[in-house]
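Continuing from yesterday's entry. The apo prediction looked reasonable, so today I'm repeating it with S-adenosylmethionine included to see how the binding region is handled. Same sequence as before; SMILES copied from the compound registry.
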Amino acid sequence: MASKNLANAKEAKKDEFYTQLADIENELKHYRQHFKGKIVFCNCDDPYESNFFKYFAINFNALGLKKLIATCYDGSPFLGSELLFDFGEETKDDYPKKAYKVEITEVTDINGDGRVDLGDVQYLLKNDKNVLTKLKGSGDFRSVECIELMKEADVVVTNPPFSLFREYVAQLMKYEKKFLIIGNQNAITYKEIFPLIKNNKLWLGYKTGDMAFRVPDYYEARETRYWQDESGQKWRSMGNICWFTNLEHKKRHEELILYAHYNPEYYPKYDNYDAINVDRVSEIPCDYDGVMGVPITFLDKYNPEQFEIVEFRKGADGKDLIYSNLRGGGRLSLTSEYSSVDVDKWINEQSQRYGSEWQEQVCKDSYPATSIPGMIKNKEGLIKGKITYARIIIRKRKHIS
Ligand SMILES: C[S@@+](CC[C@H](N)C(=O)[O-])C[C@H]1O[C@@H](n2cnc3c(N)ncnc32)[C@H](O)[C@@H]1O
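Holo prediction written out below.
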């Protein structure tokens, strides 16, 4: 047990990447309409340290929030000193430190001079309506008491521990929460995450790419993507950060303008799938209506009204069978007879024969041809015998009248 705790603590120590206020502001400005009258929960956030807490405290009234809750995990290296003051019972020797929650229901600029930083926890706690309470457990987002807080909340917003990303998202899904969280783009290819994207239960937010984070003092220096500022604060940056959300936003409905033209030499087909390979999102051809394997960065531009993520399945004859995720599949003995012909023709014929609820049936009667339906990964995709990069399988939607 002791060694498990130690391992957990060690793992948690690698998760201390603190988000900058400017990055939070730049993203959150696109979602203002989702917060009015809502309870926001930041469940990986030491209120004294987290800019997520600070952002929502500062903007509490402007957003029209009903309540802001933040819980602090007892692995946080910053937690502790403030508590000596607040609880008056711990001493410095009481490590591991205690976790706590802060609940804010009223934010007032008491003297109206605007000089007080409304993200200042001590200041906020001077208002009797706001409370700081010690948690019974460690503040782990998976603990019963933190789950109870999550159930109470409408929207969860944070940068969760990267090492627990899968579990974190699974919990959000289980409790059907609205959320906006930071993660690594690699998570797109996780078998637990991609199906959610494919099924429109999760999508990317606005910003993707580079982001810099403050890190604790114990983080070691690195050759790249590491620096110390003039105050001695250590920083790390990552080039593949993105926001994951299920909150609607405008960008998700913007049309991607396509310029490139298809030619078979430049866009080779996979050896084993009836799809062309596209190396860059900017090179998605405007005049190709079939299935395309595109880089995972495509998701940054994914408009589900313009494209659909499709999957390859194997028919009863063991050969690849293309069918559209949204338009359904066939019934009974599915064979690949149409797979390299015209998918729309096949779909139309199937729907005329079997009516509208054949989506379910095709899943029963065929099986996915790739380990993650809708994605070609690792050795699954070959072009002239060579392995390709991870690709999302898409095609343009036809607006059938
Ligand atoms: C990537 S950091 C981000 C911190 C803060 N949300 C921010 O954006 O500045 C993730 C935080 O989650 C905390 N954490 C690690 N494991 C946790 C767990 N099981 N439950 C809750 N928080 C955890 C870490 O201590 C760390 O402070």
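Comparison notes:
- The mean pLDDT is 85.
- The two ends are 62 Å apart (CA to CA).
Will overlay with the apo model tomorrow.
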